[in-house]
Design goal:
Length: 190
């Protein structure tokens, strides 16, 4: 049995997109775990008795709600601001999603093959950056606010793109202001 056999058929396109996504393999593996709800959030750590009785399960980023992966990666005010920023950057209308699959499915059904690949890469970078911020707050006393996360996502996706193909460095400016145009006209993936 392959991992794909465990996935309901209507989710299969999301996983296929992730495996073809031009992000580092550790990021794709993280996304796969996240979509299977296997990320060790505080709620999960409590359920598995890694956080003891009376342990704090509140969200590491906002401190207000019990931390499930749906909260941490979508509904948390901190995460929502990041998604709204990403969609504004992409110039795609944002509506509150049902779950992480619906955000990804929305993106990978937008436009042609190149654009879908680019948008999948950006979805991947967004969840990865939120997770990196969670780790930084949890273990390194890092900043809780995510004002700089959007810029991290832009730079990260830029680096992933560079690692995949010969791209003029001067395009970073274009990438920051017109990502969709870049994806459609300049982006080359192996
Ligand atoms: Zn929160």
């Amino acid at each position: 049995m392959t991992p794909m056999d465990l996935v309901p058929s209507w989710y299969a396109p999301s996983f296929t997109a992730i495996w073809k996504c031009p992000a580092p393999s550790k990021v794709n593996a993280f996304a796969w775990q996240l979509l299977h709800d296997r990320i060790p959030t505080r709620q999960d750590l409590y359920r598995r008795r890694i956080i003891g009785g009376g342990g704090d399960t509140s969200c590491v980023l906002c401190g207000e709600v019990s931390e499930s992966s749906a909260h941490l990666f979508i509904y948390c005010d901190v995460a929502l601001k990041v998604w709204v920023g990403v969609f504004e950057w992409l110039d795609i209308p944002f509506s509150l999603p049902h779950n992480l699959f619906s955000i990804l499915n929305h993106l990978i059904q937008t436009g042609g093959k190149k654009l879908r690949k680019g948008l999948c890469m950006i979805w991947n970078a967004t969840v990865w950056s939120l997770w990196r911020r969670w780790n930084s707050v949890m273990f390194d006393n890092g900043r809780r606010d995510t004002a700089d996360v959007l810029d991290e996502i832009k730079v990260l996706t830029w680096k992933w793109w560079l690692s995949q193909s010969e791209v003029a460095h001067s395009l970073l400016y274009e990438w920051r202001v017109q990502p969709k145009l870049c994806v459609e006209n300049c982006l080359e993936f192996d």
